[in-house]
Design brief:
two-stranded parallel sheet; 8 strands; alpha/beta; 206 residues; globular; 39% helix
Length: 206
């Protein structure tokens, strides 16, 4: 859909986003793309002199903020993030239900995948480095899909001794995608950039 669009617009908070021929707005200071979208809508309202932001918009933007900040827990969360979230709450967003749906629920297949992959997790340098591999066979055997791999790197990083966690995911085309989550002292984005990827200091990939 993006490639066929007459006008292409890239909104992102990852400074390493791939180049495109369309319009680009990259703001690495934004904790979430939702913040960028929120400010664009508010600017449009000023220019058009009509209200645009609705309850449905607010739910979508809050969803983006919750997922990009890990429920306001990640280090990218700023005062500005809370200001935008506060403004969105004026539209009666059920943040409790939204947070549970986005951040706490999982499929039965994902639960099985966690058990399967955890058996093969490897730890190095006194447990400070964690590496987890997710093969296509693991996905097929557990009935999981690509979405069910989300959060595995965060789960590994939560282990007290781990400073950096790598999750390697085998794709249908033979390529392997690597998700990195780190704690203070390891620049995940800097590491990923060396392999053609990028992201944030504590969350990156290639």
């Amino acid at each position: 859909l993006f490639e066929r669009a007459g006008v292409q617009i890239v909104l992102d908070h990852h400074i390493s986003s791939q180049p495109s021929s369309g319009l680009r707005l990259i703001d690495p200071s934004a904790a979430a793309v939702g913040q960028i979208v929120y400010h664009l809508i508010r600017r449009l309202e000023t220019v058009a002199e009509v209200p645009i932001l609705s309850h449905d918009h607010a739910v979508c933007i809050m969803s983006a903020i919750l997922t990009d900040t890990g429920g306001f827990r990640f280090s990218n969360t700023t005062r500005e993030t809370f200001m935008v979230a506060s403004a969105l709450m004026q539209f009666d967003v059920d943040i409790s239900a939204l947070s549970f749906e986005l951040l706490e629920t999982m499929t039965l297949a994902k639960y099985r995948l966690i058990g399967r992959t955890s058996e093969h997790a490897a730890f190095f340098r006194d447990g400070s480095i964690a590496i987890l591999g997710v093969s296509r066979t693991m996905l097929l055997d557990t009935g999981a899909d690509e979405n069910d791999t989300n959060g595995l790197a965060n789960m590994l990083r939560a282990i007290d001794s781990v400073r950096v966690a790598f999750v390697l995911k085998e794709g249908d085309n033979g390529l392997v995608r690597v998700n990195i989550r780190s704690k203070e002292g390891f620049d995940a984005a800097g590491f990923a950039t060396g392999y053609g990827g990028g992201g944030h200091a504590r969350a990156a990939g290639f």
